[in-house]
Amino acid sequence: MIGCGSLIKVKSQETRRLISFIMLTIGSIIAAYALESFLIPNTILDGGVTGISIIVSKITSLPVSLLVLILNIPFAYIGYKNLGRGFLIRAVYSMVLFSVSLSVFKYYEPLTEQMLLATVFGGILLGIGVGLVIHFGGCVDGTESVALVISKKTTLSVGQVVLLFNLVIYAVAGMIFGIDRAMYSLLTYFITFKVIDFVSEGFEQAKAALIITEKGTDMAKEIYKRLGRTVTTIRGRGLISGDKEVMYCVLTRMEIYELRHIAEEMDESAFITILEVSDIIGQHIKSTQRLSHKKIRYQRKEDKV
Known about the structure:
Layout: H1 4-39, H2 48-60, H3 64-83, H4 85-105, H5 115-135, H6 143-153, H7 158-177, H8 179-199, E1 206-213, H9 216-227, E2 232-238, E3 242-252, H10 256-266, E4 271-276, H11 287-290, H12 293-304
Antiparallel strand pairs: 1-3, 1-4, 2-3
Helix pairs in contact: 1-4, 1-5, 2-3, 2-7, 3-4, 3-6, 5-8, 6-7, 7-8, 9-10
């Protein structure tokens, strides 16, 4: 028999999941509308896979919606390998809906042919849409998934990898469509960047999480298992709640949503604070590279139990 507490917990999780998919839907539609109503008709490019899709579409006349969906498949798989099944479900849902919405809004008349207006309002709307998708754990462009992998194997941050990737795209756009289109695209990118910063609780890639819980050991193992992040544990004592474990973990913003899920599953009473990280000295965020073989073997044994 399922107790009342367990039933309430299940319903609460289902409600949160429903809300997250509703917001993923809204965000994907807004992002697609921004592209087809402002940016694409004026040959202003977004970055990442979407930017590549727009360039190929302009040259070959293939639909952007189809290109976005096809080109994102390998990126979605890479995201799945690094962020898990939950991320894959939300990412595929967002990408498919984003692609379908692009095909629908393609037949709408563009709202303006003024380049500056298209750049500003297209960038703002795109930032709102993508920011909502990111905030609720989805993804409409898989570039960051690859950037996360590259970041773990190099000294570059995720943000630096994405920026370098986009600069190459805008350079190619400048050679094909003219330098003015590349400059408008770059301006749109920075506007979108800042709006995402506002909507998704910060676009800075590095975040720090302070977790106060009574199940620190179990939660730390789960964080390592799902996210590959090591955790520093500190003994703490609450004025009323008594002995607690305080855990400190550095992660990326793409992993914050999964961290919330881990906390909900392991300890609903856990208190989490997400902090901005202005700079990182050392290799803490690239934790999987520096773990000893002994710890990896130990973790594998734990997984089999």
